[in-house]
Amino acid sequence: MSLLEIRDLKVHFPIRRGVVVDRTIGHVRAVDGVSLSVERGRTYGLVGESGCGKTTLGRAVLRLNEITHGEVRFDGRDLAGLDPESMRRERANLQMVFQDPLGSLNPRQNIGSILLEGLQTHGIGGPSEEEAEGLGRRQRRARTAQDQRRRVVAALERVGLSAKALQRYPHEFSGGQRQRIGIARALVLEPDLIICDEPVSALDVSIQAQVLNLLEELQEELGLTYLVIAHDLAVVRHVSDVVGVMYLGSLVEEATGDELYGTPAHPYTRSLMSAVPVPDPTVEDTRERILLAGDLPSPADPPPGCRFHTRCPWRQEERCDTERPELRPLHGVQGSGTHRVACHYAEQILSGQLRPSADQAERIVRGAG
Amino acid sequence: MTTSTPLLAVDELSVVFHRKGQGETRAVDGVSFTLEEGRVTGLVGESGCGKSVTSLALMGLLPDRGVKVGGSALIRLPDGEQDLLKVSQRRMRDLRGSQLAMIFQDPLSSLNPVVPIGVQVTEILSRHRGMRGAAARREAADLLQRVGIPDPTRRLGEYPHQLSGGMRQRALIAMAVACRPKLMIADEPTTALDVTIQAQILELLRDLVTEEGTALLMITHDLGVVAGLCDEINVLYAGKAVETAPRGPLFADPAHPYTVGLLGSIPRLDAPRGEPLTPVRGSVNDNIAWADGCAFAPRCDHYTMECLQGPPPLVGASGDEEGPGHIHRCVNPVGRAGPDRPEPETPAAASEEERG
C-alpha cells in the first residue's frame, strides 16, 4: 500500500465581494481534481510553474488549506475527514520543509527552542512506561527534557550542524544553514513523510547542491518518504523516483523521472522541458525549443476542455476545447507501465503523426545560437 | 576577436564600500572585461560575488557617499571615447536610456506602480528623442509590439499590476530598447520568471543582439542561461574574475576549481536520477581576503600553501588547444599539468561543523 494516496483532491478558494453582504462570486480552482500516490521510502516530485497549484496541494495534504473535495489517505487513514485535534496529532508523522528558510523560522526563538517545540507539542521523548514507574514527577520531567535534548542534537548532527547551534538565533546562520535547520525541525519528530516545498529555490547553486545531497543521504539512512514540490525541473528530476507535472490545478503527466525525460508525452511537459536551459553550449545550440505563446490562464476562470488548449502547439479542432482529458495510462510505449498522461492525442504526438502548428507555438527554434 | 577597439573596455574596476565603524568592504576587486557590438558577455557568480555592483557602477547608480569606485570603463560613443566612471551626473543622465540601458531582475519594483505603462515608455521617448503626443504614443505601441506584447495600444493605458510577470519584463525591455542603446545591461532578467516565460525573454534578448547589434552584458547566477546566450563568460568570485573564457572552453574544459564546483552543483535535466552532485563545500563566509591569497582557498579541494602567498595572478590556460581568451586566476588549475599536486587537505579555516 502507498504511504500517501490522494484521490480526486480539490481545493477551491472562494472569491468574495461586497461590503455589507459578503457574497461568493466565484472560486479560484487552485487544485482541481488531482489523484496521485507516493510509495513508502520513495520520492514523488511535483513540478509546475507558479500558479499551477503545487504548493496548495502540498499544504492541503497537511490540512493547512481546507480540502474542498476528495480524499487524502495517509497510511490508510483519511486525513480529509479528521477533526482538528486528531489532525494535529497526525502531523507528527507528516512534516514540511518550507521554501524560505528565514521566513519559516521564528527570529526570536533560538534554534534549541525551535527544534524542541515539535517534540513538546507532540509529547515525544522521555522515559518509557516501565522506566517512568517509580520516578517522581520532577524526575520524569528531567528525564524527558534530557531525552528531547538528545533527539534535537542528533537531528542537528544529521543535517551537519553541531550542538553549538542550539543557543543561536536564525539570523546568525547563512541561507544554507537555515535550510538545514528547517530540515532538522522536520526530522526531529521522526516523521514518515516530509513535504518539501521548494526546498532549494532560495539558495545559491553550490549550497543548493549541498542541500539536495543532504536530503538524499537522509532518505537512504532513515528510509524517509518525500513529496518534493519545485518549479525547477532539473532539481525535481534529480531527486525524484516519480515525477508529476501540474498545469492549472491538475496533473497533466506522471511517470518515472527517466521515462518522463525520455519520452515526454504531454505537450506542456514537452515545452516545459525544452525551456529549461542546460549548462552545456553544445546541447544549447542543438536542442529544439518550443516557445509557448502567452501566459497561464486564470485559475478562477479556467478554459473549458483541456486546460492547456489555449497555449498548446498541438491543439486539434473540437475535442481539445470541449472535452477535458482524463489522466490515463499512455499506450504503446515500452516502459514500466506507470506512465500516465492527460492528453487526447499523446500517442499521435509521440509517434510524430501530429506536428505542432507553427502559429500555435510562438516559434519553434531548432538549433538557435 | 576583433582588432578594432571594443565598445566598452572595463579595466580593473573596483568598488569599495565604507561604513562607519565597520571598515571597508571590497565588493568588486579589480574586474576587467570588454563588450563588443552584437555580442553577449556574461558575468556569472553567486550572491555576493559583486556582479550586480559591477553593473550599478557602470550605470553610475551607486550612491555618492561611502563608495569608492576605481579603475576605468572606456566606452566608444559617437562623439569620442569616454570613461563611464568619470563622466558628470548630467552627462550620465543623457547617456542612460539613449546609449546605455539596464534591465533589472524584479520587473514589478522597477516599474512605477502608479503610472500607466504608456506614460513610462513615452517618458523615455520624449526625454531622449524629443517625441511628443500622438507620435510618441504610436512609437510606444510599436515598441511594445516589437517585444511581443499583444494588443499594445490597450496595454499602454494599463498599470504595471495589470500585467503578468513576463509581460512586465517585456515592457521593461521595450523601455530599454526605446532609443536603440549601444549597450544593454541585463541583471538577472529572468530569475523572477517561470521557465517557459524565461525561454521567451531569452529569445527576445537574443534577437535584439543579433538584429540591432546591441552589446549585452548578461548578469546571472544561472550557468544554463549563460550556456545558451553568452559568447564570452566571466566567472566572478568574491569580487574578482576567477576565470574568463569563450563559452565553449569554459564548459568543456573549466580551469578554475570554483568554475568546476559550480558546474558540478547543477542538477542537469539530461542526467539520470541520483547522479551525484559535487558541490563546492562551505559557503562564502569562509573566504579569506584576496590580499592574503586566493579567496576561494578555504573551500577548494586543490588548495596548497602556494595559494596563500598573495593574490594569484591571471594566467592563460595552458596548452594551445583552448584558443585565445581563456584565462584564469589559479596557481593550481584543474586538469592541467602543473606543479606536483599534493593530496587535497582540509584547511583549518573551514571548520567541519559549520557546513553550508
UniProtKB/TrEMBL annotation, chain A:
<feature type="region of interest" description="Disordered">
    <location>
        <begin position="122"/>
        <end position="143"/>
    </location>
</feature>
<comment type="similarity">
    <text>Belongs to the ABC transporter superfamily.</text>
</comment>
<keyword id="KW-0813">Transport</keyword>
<feature type="domain" description="ABC transporter">
    <location>
        <begin position="15"/>
        <end position="273"/>
    </location>
</feature>
<protein>
    <submittedName>
        <fullName>Peptide/nickel transport system ATP-binding protein</fullName>
    </submittedName>
</protein>
<dbReference type="InterPro" id="IPR013563">
    <property type="entry name" value="Oligopep_ABC_C"/>
</dbReference>
<dbReference type="InterPro" id="IPR050319">
    <property type="entry name" value="ABC_transp_ATP-bind"/>
</dbReference>
<dbReference type="InterPro" id="IPR027417">
    <property type="entry name" value="P-loop_NTPase"/>
</dbReference>
<dbReference type="InterPro" id="IPR003593">
    <property type="entry name" value="AAA+_ATPase"/>
</dbReference>
<keyword id="KW-0547">Nucleotide-binding</keyword>
<dbReference type="Pfam" id="PF08352">
    <property type="entry name" value="oligo_HPY"/>
</dbReference>
<dbReference type="InterPro" id="IPR017871">
    <property type="entry name" value="ABC_transporter-like_CS"/>
</dbReference>
<dbReference type="GO" id="GO:0005524">
    <property type="term" value="F:ATP binding"/>
</dbReference>
<dbReference type="Pfam" id="PF00005">
    <property type="entry name" value="ABC_tran"/>
</dbReference>
<keyword id="KW-0067">ATP-binding</keyword>
<dbReference type="InterPro" id="IPR003439">
    <property type="entry name" value="ABC_transporter-like_ATP-bd"/>
</dbReference>
Automatic annotation (TrEMBL), chain B:
<comment type="similarity">
    <text>Belongs to the ABC transporter superfamily.</text>
</comment>
<keyword id="KW-1003">Cell membrane</keyword>
<dbReference type="Pfam" id="PF00005">
    <property type="entry name" value="ABC_tran"/>
</dbReference>
<feature type="domain" description="ABC transporter">
    <location>
        <begin position="10"/>
        <end position="263"/>
    </location>
</feature>
<dbReference type="InterPro" id="IPR027417">
    <property type="entry name" value="P-loop_NTPase"/>
</dbReference>
<keyword id="KW-0472">Membrane</keyword>
<dbReference type="InterPro" id="IPR003593">
    <property type="entry name" value="AAA+_ATPase"/>
</dbReference>
<keyword id="KW-0547">Nucleotide-binding</keyword>
<feature type="region of interest" description="Disordered">
    <location>
        <begin position="317"/>
        <end position="356"/>
    </location>
</feature>
<dbReference type="InterPro" id="IPR017871">
    <property type="entry name" value="ABC_transporter-like_CS"/>
</dbReference>
<dbReference type="Pfam" id="PF08352">
    <property type="entry name" value="oligo_HPY"/>
</dbReference>
<dbReference type="InterPro" id="IPR013563">
    <property type="entry name" value="Oligopep_ABC_C"/>
</dbReference>
<keyword id="KW-0067">ATP-binding</keyword>
<dbReference type="InterPro" id="IPR003439">
    <property type="entry name" value="ABC_transporter-like_ATP-bd"/>
</dbReference>
<dbReference type="InterPro" id="IPR050388">
    <property type="entry name" value="ABC_Ni/Peptide_Import"/>
</dbReference>
<protein>
    <submittedName>
        <fullName>Peptide/nickel transport system ATP-binding protein</fullName>
    </submittedName>
</protein>
<dbReference type="GO" id="GO:0005524">
    <property type="term" value="F:ATP binding"/>
</dbReference>
<keyword id="KW-0813">Transport</keyword>
